[in-house]
Amino acid sequence: MTDPSSPPRDSPSSPWRRFWERGGWWRALLVAAVYLALYIGASQLIGVVFRGQYDLTDQFGDPATVAITLLLPVVIGSVILVAFAASVKWLPELFGRQPGRGRGWMWIAPAVVIAAAVLRIGATDWSTYAVGVVVLTFVSGLFVGLSEELLTRGLAVNLLRKGGYSERWVMVLSSLLFALLHSTNLLGGQPIATVLLTMAFTFFFGVAMYLTLRVTGSLVWPILLHAITDPTTFLATGGIDSGAGTGSPLLAFAGLSVYVYVILAIVALFLVKGHLDRTTADRTTADRAPLR
Question: CB atoms < 10 A from the CB of 183, how many?
C-alpha cells in the first residue's frame, strides 16, 4: 500500500533537487554566475601555480602554454558542470534524446557551422604551429564545447523549459546567457569594442547551436560543432578573438557565416514557438503547440 505522505515516484526527494526542478530564468543565471566565479577562480589559481611556465604574448606558440592557459581551465570548468548535473540527476535527460523535433530549415545552422570550420581549416597556415599545439588546441576545443554547451544549451535550456517558458524565449534567453558569459573577456584586458563584438557574435552563434540542438535532438551535436568552431578559429586567426589571419580568401568566405547566423536568428524569432518539456513531450510538439 502506498503511503499518501510520501512524494510521487518521479518527484525529487531532496530539497536540492526540488529547488532546481522548479526551473526559471534566474536559476539559469545563478548556475552561470556560480560557474563563472569558480571558473575564474580556478583560472587565477592556475596562473599562480604555473607562473613563469607559459607565455601569454604567444598563446599558441608552444604546447605548454596551450595546455596551461587554454586546456586546463576548461577541463576544470567541464568537471564542475558535469558534477552539478550529476548532483541533480539530470545527466540522462541532458545527454539523452531531446523532447520534440525540429524543422527542416533548422539544418541550415549545423551545415553553416561545418562549412565555416572547413573553410578555416583550408585558410590556416599549419606550418606555423607545432603538432603538439594543434593537438592540444583541438582537445581544448572539445572541452570548450562540452562546458559552454552543457551550461547554455544543456542546463540553461532545461531550467528555462522547466520554468514554463516558450521555446522562443528558451532560445533567446539561453543565447543571451551564452553571450553574457563572454563579457568576462573584459577581465583579460580586451578592449570593450572587441568584447561587445564577441558578445554579439556569440548570441547569434548561440541561436545556431539551439537550432542544432532542436533539429538533431541531441546535446552531443552542439558540443561537437562548438568543439570544431573554436579551435579552427583560433588557429586560422592566430589567437583568441583575434581579427588577424593568413589573408586567405577562404577565411573571408568563412566570415560570411556570421551574416547567415544573424539571418537565421531573425527567422527563428518568427518560426520557433510553442512549449516543450519532457513531461509534455509525449503529447505536445514544439512549433505545433499553442503559445502560452
Answer: 15
Query: In a structure prediction context, what are the per-residue pLDDT tens digits for the chain, which is 292 residues long?
Result: 444 444 444 566 799 999 999 999 999 999 999 999 999 999 999 999 999 888 888 889 999 999 999 999 999 999 999 999 999 999 999 999 998 889 999 999 999 999 999 999 999 999 999 999 999 999 999 999 999 999 999 999 999 999 999 999 999 999 999 999 999 988 878 899 999 999 999 999 999 999 999 999 999 999 999 999 999 999 999 877 666 655 789 999 999 999 999 999 999 999 999 988 755 443 344 444 433 3
Angstrom distance (rounded) from CA 251 to CA 287: 36
- Given a contact cutoff of 8 angstroms between Cβ atoms, the answer to whether 46 and 68 are in contact is yes
Rounded to 5 degrees, what are φ and ψ at 50?
Answer: -105, 25
Tally of CB atoms within 10 A around 132 = 13
In 3-state terms, what secondary structure has residue 12?
Answer: coil
Ramachandran angles phi, psi of 285, nearest 5°: -110, 130
What span, in angstroms and rounded, lies between the C-alpha atoms of 149 and 291?
A: 26
Whole-number Å distance between alpha carbons of 78 and 149:
10
DSSP string, 230-287: HHHHHHHHTSTT-------HHHHHHHTHHHHHHHHHHHHHHH--S---TTTTTT--TT
C-alpha cell at 17: 533537487
Residues 6+ apart with CB under 8 A from 190: 198, 241
CA 136 remoteness from chain centre? 19
Residue 94's nearest CA partner among 170, 169, 151 is 151
